[in-house]
Specification:
The structure holds two protein chains of two kinds. By secondary structure, chain A is an alpha/beta fold. Chain A has three helices and twelve strands. In chain A, about 15% of the residues lie in helices and about 25% in strands. In chain A, α1 (about 15-25) links the parallel β1 and β2. Chain B has an eight-stranded parallel β-sheet. In chain B, strands 6-20-21 form a three-stranded mixed β-sheet, with helices on one face. A two-stranded antiparallel sheet of chain B has the order 1-4. The termini of chain B are far apart. Chain B has helices at about 25-30, 55-60, 85-95, 185-200, 235-240, 275-290, 305-315, 335, 345-355, 375-385, 395-400, 420-425, 430-455, 460, 475-480; strands at about 10-15, 35-40, 45, 65-70, 100, 115-120, 140, 150-155, 155-160, 165-170, 175, 200-205, 220-225, 240-245, 295-300, 320-325, 330-335, 365-370, 390, 470, 485. Chain B is α/β, with parallel strands linked by helices. Chain B has two domains: about 10-100, Alpha-Beta Plaits (2-Layer Sandwich), CATH 3.30.70; about 140-485, Aldolase class I (TIM Barrel). Classes of the chains: A alpha/beta, B alpha/beta.
Chain lengths: ~250, ~500
């Protein structure tokens, strides 16, 4: 049985709002709809299990930090550090997000319709079958995929103006694992010195198709049209970018 | 381009050939290939330049045929350019790399513990016999309330004040943060088991908690560092305390330097930029664990440590852990290990005083680390204001570490700082646990006896009680920072 509840977050400090959410979960609620969210932090923080939270408004920093399972849909923009160290779950954001999206994310999926700020995908990591995935519909600011250790980031740049770069400077700086796909050509001077541009191969096409289909379904795009464009793949040069720095 | 190395061996392997039975145990045991077998002449050969001086071979040799000595070859004596300095320049000229080392700062800086003396009772106040009287070393870590209110219901007193989450330990000594990854599984298991057995805590370090060690969660401090290795919701909820690692004394301001896939320099710079950021992380962790666990923040002792600690307290931490500049590590650039930071004694005194001045000392427990060598250091640390201490190097020495400082190579012949399964078996977890428990017991007994002599029956009464300390051979600035009078000065 799916039990639903609506919580009006207007004027509620984050401690109270999150306590309400946890109380509802303890009572067996599986679908929580939040109204008038206005910057409250830590929504979904550390939550586990089967649960769906829809957020109307703008959630604050650390949305879904350490989250382990639930699905969160945001009808609006979101702030910094979304999906911080998230292990499992899905986040769908119908807007733009701030900095540090997916910091140290270790599993689950994040779909962003709009743009992402600085250092998105920073230090994402993968382990065995646990592969975190971020798909961004718009553009990214500097240090996209910084220190990335694993997982997949797909940047689509669908809303780009003519000649507008898809990502800022220093993309993939310090990257030593994982894959970044960009739906555009990127000039080498925009990349960190630890990454290299690789050709798209058959297995890449399968990955792109799988996640772009999901993205398109969430936001009402035509996946085939998105997939028509040329993609660029970025991989790290080596697993030990700083191996030569030391004398043993 | 090939060049002949100008490095001179640091050690000489002396092999008594009358005793050597060519069993080749030394060859198998050495992680650095300093012993090799010559099949043509059926003799063991020493490769002195590979020797790190860890003494594993001489310990294992069944006929006591091996002695390791420092190489007596002397450079021209020079007060400015000593052998160590020359050696390092040679190494860098040959590799172009930053020097790396394991363990703590090995340079001869002043050790303030050795300039502090404890008090004892004579005539005017009685000492306490710990064999006869109950003595209390039990310590509670976490935030304490400003005041405690008691109400009476049905004639029975009841605590009205709601307490913050506290963690009880039986002795004010904890095992310091040492990761699985830097150390072998057997060592981590021994630390966990010893902590459980004695009623104290071990610290996972930033490498996560091995799945088989989750059963020791009630005795674990789980670390969260910027690299977030092994951090998830289950890990956070398993530990007794969560510790945010901002820095460590051996390498303030920089990140991990372990070999292989863990070489991720600069990771430590990725996240925390301000007290606001720290507050955000503290509350992200509190929210994730329903405010049920104390949150610790560990920093390296650096110049403005008192202001930084104050900021951490105001950011909502329940424990501040401060690691002095002698704190050890699995790997650090030598330039940083040997030159950055502050002695823990001065940092502790400065922080405790600052928090008292602000009236927030009870908001946090203070844990200090970085060169706690014996029970006297523990007692002095508590008298200077610490709630408890972390021991890392001392715990590893108890297990068998001989301080060769080569942890960063991952080749540890004692099976401690390595993942090589052939070597990790050398630490028997049952024996290592026993040795660690013995060390905790010995120090705790010494603390109890010393307290008794001071006329104190509870460690709580010693906390921050600097009147029980006197400085010896210290100048006025040092005395002022430590907040102690000079030996010979009365009240």
């Amino acid at each position: 049985m799916n039990k639903s509840i609506t919580i009006d977050a207007h004027g509620l400090p984050f401690v109270k709002l999150n306590r309400e959410i946890k109380r509802a979960i303890a009572e067996g609620v599986t679908h929580i709809s939040l109204l008038n969210v206005n910057g409250q932090r830590y929504i979904g923080d550390g939550l586990r299990g089967k649960l769906r939270i829809t957020i109307n408004g703008i959630p604050g920093n650390d949305l879904a930090a350490f989250m382990n399972g639930p699905e969160i849909v945001v009808y609006g923009n979101a702030q910094d550090c979304i999906a911080n160290t998230m292990k499992k779950g899905r986040i769908i954001i119908h807007g733009n997000v701030g900095d540090l999206l997916g910091y140290a994310m270790r599993g689950g999926e994040v779909f962003v319709k709009g743009n992402v700020g600085y250092r998105a995908g920073i230090h994402m990591k993968a382990c065995d079958k646990q592969i975190p995935v971020i798909v961004v519909g718009g553009t990214a600011a500097d240090f996209f995929g910084e220190y990335m250790a694993g997982g997949i980031i797909i940047l689509l740049g669908l809303n780009r103006q003519h000649n507008e770069p898809i990502a800022g400077d220093y993309t993939g700086t310090g990257m030593h694992g994982g894959i970044i796909y960009l739906r555009a050509e990127v000039p080498k001077e925009h990349l960190g010195k630890e990454v290299q541009i690789m050709k798209i191969e058959q297995q890449d096409k399968a990955i792109l198709k799988k996640y772009i289909k999901k993205f398109a379904q969430e936001f009402g795009f035509d996946p085939d049209k998105i997939l028509e464009a040329e993609f660029t793949k970025l991989l790290p040069m080596g697993k030990r970018p700083y191996g030569q720095k030391y004398a043993y | 381009m090939l060049m002949k190395s100008m490095l001179i061996s640091e050690f000489i392997i002396e092999r008594n050939l009358d005793r050597c039975i060519v069993c080749r145990a030394c060859e198998r045991q050495c992680g650095f290939d300093a012993h090799q077998y010559d099949p043509e002449d059926d003799v063991m050969v020493s490769i002195d330049e590979n020797c790190v001086g860890c003494q594993r071979c001489s310990y294992i040799c069944p006929t006591n045929a091996i002695t390791i000595r420092r190489n007596p070859t002397e450079f021209q004596p020079h007060a400015q350019w000593d052998a160590n300095t020359i050696h390092n320049i040679m190494k860098q000229a040959e590799t172009g790399g930053m020097l790396l080392a394991g363990m703590g700062n090995d340079r001869p800086y002043p050790i303030y513990w050795d300039h502090l003396l404890l008090n004892a009772s004579q005539v005017t106040n009685p000492s306490i016999d710990p064999l006869r009287e109950p003595m209390e070393l039990r310590t509670y870590l976490g935030r304490k309330p400003d005041r405690v209110e008691i109400e009476e219901t049905d004639g029975k007193p009841r605590l009205k004040t709601k307490l913050y989450p506290l963690v009880e330990i039986e002795t004010p000594i904890l095992f310091a943060a040492m990761s699985y990854g830097a150390l072998s599984y057997n060592v981590c298991r021994s630390l966990a088991q010893a902590a459980q057995e004695f009623g104290t805590l071990f610290n996972t370090g930033e490498g996560g908690l091995h799945e088989k060690l989750y059963q020791y969660g009630d005795h674990a401090i789980v670390q969260v560092a910027s690299g977030r290795f092994g951090v998830d919701e289950e890990y956070l909820n398993t530990g007794a305390i969560i510790e945010i690692k901002i820095g460590q004394g051996a390498k303030p301001g920089i990140g991990g330097h372990l070999p292989g896939e863990k070489v991720l320099a600069d990771i430590a710079r990725t996240h925390i930029y301000s007290i606001e950021d720290l507050r955000q992380l503290i509350f992200a962790l509190k929210e994730a664990t329903d405010y049920r666990k104390p949150i610790s923040v560990k920093i390296a002792a650096v110049h403005n440590v008192a202001s930084i600690a104050s900021g951490i307290v105001h950011a909502g931490a329940d424990i501040v852990a401060i690691d002095g500049f002698r704190g050890a590590t699995g790997a650090a650039p030598v330039v940083i290990r040997n030159n950055v930071g502050l002695p823990i004694e001065l940092a502790l005194a400065a922080v405790d005083q600052r928090l008292r001045d602000e009236g927030v000392r009870n908001n946090v427990s203070l844990i200090v680390s970085g060169s706690i060598r014996n029970s006297a250091d523990v007692i002095k640390a508590i008298a200077l204001g610490a709630d408890a201490v972390y021991i890392g190097t001392a715990a590893l020495i108890a297990i068998g570490c001989h301080l060769c400082q080569k942890c960063h190579t991952g080749k540890c012949s004692w099976g401690i700082a390595t993942q090589d399964p052939y070597k990790t078996r050398r630490v028997n977890p049952e024996i290592a646990t026993r040795r660690l428990v013995n060390l905790l017991q010995a120090w705790s007994r010494e603390i109890t006896d010393t307290l008794g002599g001071m006329g104190i029956n509870s460690i709580e009464s010693l906390k921050g009680n600097r009147l029980h300390l006197r400085g010896v051979g210290l100048n006025q600035v040092e005395l002022d920072i430590l907040g102690v009078k000079h030996a010979g000065e009365s009240l």
